[in-house]
Amino acid sequence: MEKNIVDLNVFRIEKTLKDNGFVLKKDKERNVMILIKLKNDE
């Protein structure tokens, strides 16, 4: 069986970013992560 390890600090940061309108995109082919803001909070 494969075990998944969850880093709670990373989880909280990602949740906070999502709540503020950011989206984290993962490209498995190039092994990069991109942070994009979709909402305008002005």
Q: Tell me, briefly, the overall form.
A: flat
Q: Total number of β-strand segments? A: 2
Series of secondary-structure elements, N-terminal to C-terminal: HEE
How big is the Rg? 13 Å
How much is the average pLDDT?
79
Unreliable stretches (pLDDT < 50, length at least 5) are none
The computed structural class is: alpha+beta
Strand content: 25-35%
Determine the fraction of residues in helical runs and give it as a percent range.
25-40%
Number of helices: 1
The biggest sheet amounts to: 2 strands, antiparallel
Oligomer: single chain
How are the strands of the biggest sheet laid out side by side? 1-2
Q: Measure the end-to-end span.
A: 47 Å
Question: Would you write up a description of this structure?
Answer:
It is a single chain. This protein is of the alpha+beta class. It is built from 1 helix and 2 strands; from the N terminus they run H-E-E. It has a two-stranded antiparallel ribbon. The longest helix is centred in the N-terminal third of the chain and has 12 residues. The relative contact order is 0.19.
Main attributes?
single chain; 42 residues; two-stranded antiparallel sheet; alpha+beta; flat
Short description:
The protein is an alpha+beta fold. Helix content is 29%, strand content 29%.
Topology:
Blueprint: H1 8-19, E1 22-27, E2 32-37
Antiparallel strand pairs: 1-2
